[in-house]
Amino acid sequence: MNFPSRLIEDAVNEFSRLPGVGKKTALRLVLHLLRQPQEQSRQFGEAITRMRNEIRFCKQCHNVADAELCNICGSHKRDQSMICVVENLRDVMAVENTNHFNGVYHVLGGIISPMDGIGPDELQIESLLERLKTQEVREVIMALSPTMEGDTTIFYLSRKLSPFNIKVTAISRGISVGGELEYTDEITLARAIVNRMPYESFLVRG
């Protein structure tokens, strides 16, 4: 692809680093920005820079936050005794969009995947155990994608949580095996949360 300007080429190369953005789409985005008023392009650039420089992570659940605690952990309207364990921020957003969960979250930051070199030590597991030691938690919901890696992570976590004598449940298998939570439609995900089952039953039926 030939570019009339090195500046445009550099911008296209940066945009094409984004997931799912090829060179043609990147060029379309760059040309769109080029047609906008300079002030609007400046605001776009500043928003990206501020997000990257100023974003924080909740000290309790590891969700993104603007302060020490995210809006969910800091809300007195949320049931702090119910923790939904998810893989990443996108899964928090997916569950929130169902409007069927009023507890809080714990973001692992990934799932156990030996093939990718990700073990338990790379995940936010110890901080989850610390929460159970210091907070009154009555239920932990495993809301991980129904993949082999997700099931492995759930099994590992259930072993780590067993000494706490806390109810451990998993979302029901209305979600197709091998699918990812963030791509599940809101109705199916809502039903999976509402119809969650004890982890022991999950092991038998899964």
Description:
This protein is of the alpha/beta class and 206 residues long. It folds into two domains: 6-54, Helicase, Ruva Protein, domain 3 (Orthogonal Bundle); 76-205, Dna Topoisomerase Vi A Subunit, Chain: A, domain 2. The chain contains eight helices and seven strands. It has helices at residues 6-15, 23-35, 38-54, 89-96, 126-134, 148-161, 186-194, 199-205; strands at 56-57, 64-65, 79-86, 103-107, 139-142, 167-170, 197-198.
Which percent bin holds the helix content?
Answer: 40-55%
SSE arrangement, N to C: HHHEEEHEHEHEHEH
In CATH, the architecture of the largest domain is: 3-Layer(aba) Sandwich
Contiguous uncertain segments of 5+ residues:
none
Number of helices: 8
Shape: elongated
Mean pLDDT: 88
Q: Kindly report the spatial arrangement of strands forming the biggest sheet.
A: 4-3-5-6-7
Number of strands: 7
**Structure classification:** alpha/beta
Main beta-sheet annotation: 5 strands, mixed
User: How many structural units, i.e. domains?
Assistant: 2
Give the N-terminus to C-terminus distance in angstroms.
49 Å
Per the CATH scheme, the topology name of the largest domain is: Dna Topoisomerase Vi A Subunit, Chain: A, domain 2
Please report which band the strand proportion falls in: under 5%, 5-15%, 15-25%, 25-35%, 35-45% or over 45%.
5-15%
In oligomeric terms, what are we looking at?
single chain
Radius of gyration: 21 Å
CATH class of the largest domain: Alpha Beta
